Amino acid sequence: MLVPLVLWPELQQIAGENGLDEAALPGIGLHIFYHATANQPVPVLVGFLRRAERDFFRKFTTVGGIGPAKAAKAMNVSVSTIARAIEQEDRATLTRLPGIGARGADKIIATLRGKVVAEAALQVLRQHARELDAGAVAGGAALHQSFDGAGSGDGGGRRGGGAGRGTNNSHASSY
Known about the structure:
Layout: H1 8-15, E1 31-35, E2 44-48, H2 51-60, H3 68-74, H4 79-87, H5 91-95, H6 102-112, H7 117-120, H8 122-148, H9 156-173
Antiparallel strand pairs: 1-2
Helix pairs in contact: 8-9
């Protein structure tokens, strides 16, 4: 099974300190891309951590001259980086991908431009979600601190802490 290089650090993080020892591995679920043709009947399996990555990979392999092995090799940066390069017609970024030359970059842009807009936005959306999460956590901590100091030994701090938690939960659920 092939796994794009960009996923290795995340897989190693999931595997933890045990390395890739099979007995100690936690269950890792992968979204599998299966490819076999009449000319190449031996199936090629490519694994992804997220469905969006696999869906992008499917689109990427529709470009003439890019099969699953070449696409997996080329994916040494995030899907959103590749998709943004396609949408912005950034040949320089695409030609830095392993196995992709100038002509290949042009074919990728011609085939996929306008079809990977959602994937190009993935990193921006993830960054925005992280910022929202960090804001919710920081806001909850600030509320908790301010209410903890408000009590005078009569249980006021406890009530304040409860109010902080309620505010934090309703704030988090609105996202």
